[in-house]
Amino acid sequence: MKGSKSILPPSLMGGLMPQEEMLEVARKKSMLFIGIPKECSLQENRVALVPEAVALLCNNDHRVVVERGAGKSANFQDNDYSEAGAEIVESVKEVYKADIVMKVEPLTSEEIKLVERKQTVFSALQMTVHPKDYIKNLISKRTVTDKDVTSQFSDKIFVPEEVVKKSSNSFFNIFIEKLSKSARSIL
User: Fold this and answer.
1) What is the pTM of this model?
2) Which CATH fold would you assign to the domain 31-124?
3) Checking CA distances to 130, which of 62, 65, 80, 152 falls within 20 to 30 Å?
4) If 0-12 CB within 10 Å is exposed, 13-18 middle and 19+ buried, where does residue 131 land?
5) How do residues 139-177 score in pLDDT, each as one tens digit?
6) Domain map of the chain by residue range?
7) pLDDT attached to residue 34
């Protein structure tokens, strides 16, 4: 048998084969507004986002503001960030108007005062090093009421309880639960 012949004409054969269909993908309407302040610790040379990460965010229709000189100690110029699509702002107050603020070091007492309602801050949190007043100031900046969400601490970030409830990862849940118990014992 040299080759198998189909009983269907060639014009119908193409119609029976799986065909790709181009579907329109809807763009999300929500846009992130991210602020990157300059680190103010004496020997801190890192920055929360490098220009390549900023370019990725900006290319996906998100807005990033960077405080002037934020990347200088990490050998990134303001021009690198502006070419990546970020807005360069003059003051830390302008950065803290963003919905999301990303830092390397823990917030200073002055920065805690700048945190607004409904704002998310990603930064280190060294609970055993900071005094109780520092932690209480952070807690006083909670952005929702107790009935909506109970805030729980992790080693690095504030984790809302609703995130823990939605997580199917039991290891993650146990990890967050143990950290939040240790946080409550400090307070």
Assistant:
1) 0.62
2) Rossmann fold (3.40.50)
3) 65
4) exposed
5) 777 643 333 333 433 333 444 454 444 444 455 455 555
6) 31-124, 127-187
7) 95
Q: Give 26-29's long-range contacts (Cβ < 8 A, gap of 24+).
A: 27/61
Question: In whole angstroms, what separates CA 148 from the centre of its chain?
Answer: 21
Contact 93, 65 (CB under 8 A): no
Amino acid at residue number 47: V
pLDDT of residue 29 exceeding 90, the answer is no
Mean pLDDT of 93-115: 92
Give the span between the Cα atoms of 87 and 29, in whole angstroms.
21
Q: In which element (H, E) is residue 158 found?
A: strand 158-160
Between 180 and 17, the higher pLDDT residue: 17
| Spatial distance between the Cα atoms of 142 and 122, rounded to a whole number of angstroms | 14
Half-sphere exposure of 9 (CA within 13 A, CB side): 2
The pLDDT value recorded for residue 173 is 53
Q: Which residue has the higher pLDDT, 51 or 125?
A: 51
* CA proximity to 129, closest of 46, 47, 41, 52: 41
Find the DSSP H helices in the chain: 10-16, 51-59, 78-84, 92-95, 109-114, 132-140, 161-166, 170-186
CA 68 to centroid of chain Cα atoms: 21
